[in-house]
Amino acid sequence: MPVGIDDMAIYVPKLYIDYKDFAEARGIDPQKLEYGIGIKKMALADANQDPASMAANACMRLMKNNDLNPQDIGRIYVATESGLDESKAMNSFVIGMLEQVYGESTLEHAGGIECKFACVSGSYALYDNTNWIRAGESNDKAAIVIVSDIAKYDIGSAGEYTQGAGAVALLIKENPRLLSFDEKVTSTIIKNEYDFYRPIGKETPLVNGLYSNLLYLIQVRKALETYKEKAIKSGIIKLGNDESIIDHIDYISVHLPYRRMGEKALAYLLRHEWRHLSRWEDIISEIGTDEPLPKDPRGTIESILADTDFMKADEKFRREFMKTKHYKEIFDSKMSSSLQASAVIGNLYTASMYMGLRSLLEFEFLKGVDLFNKRIGFGSYGSGCSAMVFSGVIQENYKDLVKRMNLEKDIGQRTKISIKDYEILHKNTRKYDEAFLNAEDEFILINIGGTTADRAGFREYCYAS
Ligand code: CAA
């Protein structure tokens, strides 16, 4: 029985900052942002928006688009790393908002939790809900997994140009119209790391940028190794002589803290997959130099980072590799469409890879490609750290859903704000009743806390029609 994504809906706040304004304010070359990072517009949550309201808005769109009633839904999970409460789960806020529209207690029969593991938790939530349906526990009801985040870094930090905000809601069902997950191939890896973390009470993360980039690559590659074994064992992929697993995967969708990271992840995975195949000779002759080797053959993250000569040579080689015709061909055909949304929205943490999936479907469809039966491989990464590699196959009825996907229309009329206004929002000095935009047909935050101590931290929302 195939189980997977039946439909998906997105919510992106309409405020944004433009990369040229940002570059000027911070004294950065705009080309670095446009090409080195791959960002043109960063979506920003308004003063009356938070990860719960964005999650509820994405969920409401999903329900409306599919004429779903609360009775059709058995579980609502929210995966986020922008938690609003140390105990109360974000999905309970979402349930509260939805019940304002659908009626009191209409979702009482459902279940769910808030999931946390940096940017990878949405993938765990999808996997768990898929298995809940596969196990026959769903009583013919669907699950909704919402990934929602505000990526916020310190002003002036290197992470500041990898911010963004938004949510994606995914409908998980039997016989899905969009994508069926491959069974018995999902592979995970987990390790105690401090590449990116946010201690309790701190709004912005502490990040070791270079370390987090390298860790992401190493962990996704390790999870891919296990995926490979499982995919061959389960029989979904038969690897011929001189072939790589990536030859058998039509599209690759990875975690996208920023667009360029997707490009670099593809380069890293391809180098590992290809260096033992005959095509490598061609690649090396096109680059004109051998691939550098680290001094320590164990290749641990610590030994690689300590080997500064290797790091420099390897970065140079990686840039040359990304110019080769072999890389470009795979990038254009298997990844580029998934990166388009990231460049105009920015980082969505848990939602980044799923916005990438949405982008892939929309922009490949616009190219006129027949997507039926195409396999998508996913490389999900969460700092701290864990990676998950899994795959799914696009289903026959995908066109009915993909033809109505329109990123620009779904985001809506956007408003650019100045860097000064962005900084005011960043400092949280503007309160929920001082939003820049008038909300229409969406949930917004209308109050935090009450006049009495027993209502401290209460968050109230309403549907602004
Ligand atoms: N024109 C064109 N390109 C330029 C340029 C110019 N004038 N100047 C620099 N560049 C290029 C650089 O060559 C580099 O390209 P390559 O990656 O191809 O080498 C790119 O711009 C980035 O420049 P730097 O290497 O100088 O990097 P930076 O100091 O700007 O930092 C960053 C980049 C590490 C990603 C930083 O933004 C950061 O710390 N971000 C937060 C952490 C993060 O996103 N980590 C990712 C993995 S962890 C994760 O994914 C979890 C999560 O979601 C947070």
UniProtKB/TrEMBL annotation:
The keyword Transferase is annotated on this UniProt entry: yes
Membrane-spanning segments: none
GO BP terms: acetyl-CoA metabolic process; farnesyl diphosphate biosynthetic process, mevalonate pathway
One example GO MF annotation: hydroxymethylglutaryl-CoA synthase activity
Organism of derivation: Candidatus Nitrosocosmicus oleophilus
Keywords associated with the record: Acyltransferase, Isoprene biosynthesis, Transferase
Top class in the EC scheme: transferase
EC number, UniProt record: 2.3.3.-
Name assigned to this protein: Polyketide biosynthesis 3-hydroxy-3-methylglutaryl-ACP synthase PksG
Signal peptide interval: none
Source lineage: Archaea, Nitrososphaerota, Nitrososphaeria, Nitrososphaerales, Nitrososphaeraceae
Keyword set includes Transferase: yes
Domain Hydroxymethylglutaryl-coenzyme A synthase N-terminal: 3-173
InterPro entries reported in the protein's UniProt record: HMG_CoA_synt_C_dom, HMG_CoA_synth_N, Thiolase-like
Domain of life: Archaea
Domain Hydroxymethylglutaryl-coenzyme A synthase C-terminal residues, every copy: 180-429
Similarity comment: family membership: Belongs to the thiolase-like superfamily. HMG-CoA synthase family.
